[in-house]
Amino acid sequence: MGPPSVDQFNVLPLNRWSADVTIEEILGRSENRFQFQEDRRDEDVFWLSSDEGSGMSGFVIGGPGEPTPHFREPLIHRRVEAAYKAAAQEKF
User: What would the DSSP string read from start to end of 20-62?
Assistant: First the structure.
């Protein structure tokens, strides 16, 4: 939703809600907005993370790497940052 930006949580994974939930309800809560991030420990593992105000929340969405159990929050770094910048330069 909106232009790609490392400063905004603007990804909406709509498959998380049932069909009876309106888009207005989804958009009305900031914790429903996510952004792509990279795993801080595991190379080539990617996340969708939300900013719930009380801390980060999210889930692994895949990648060719192997996720391992650890307690380091994901971040925007290297490849995800380059992807956001490349997308932001495109004209939509």
Answer: TS-HHHHHT-GGG-EEEEE-SSSTT-EEEEEE-SSSEEEEEEE
Task: Tally the C-alpha atoms within 13 A of residue 35's C-alpha that lie toward its C-beta.
Answer: 23
Could you give the number of structural domains in the chain? 1
Evaluate whether 55 touches 42 at the Cβ level (below 8 Å): no
- Asked, for residue 75, whether it belongs to a domain, the answer is yes
Residue 81 belongs to a domain = yes
pLDDT in tens, 30-49: 888 899 999 989 999 999 98
Residue 5 in domain: no
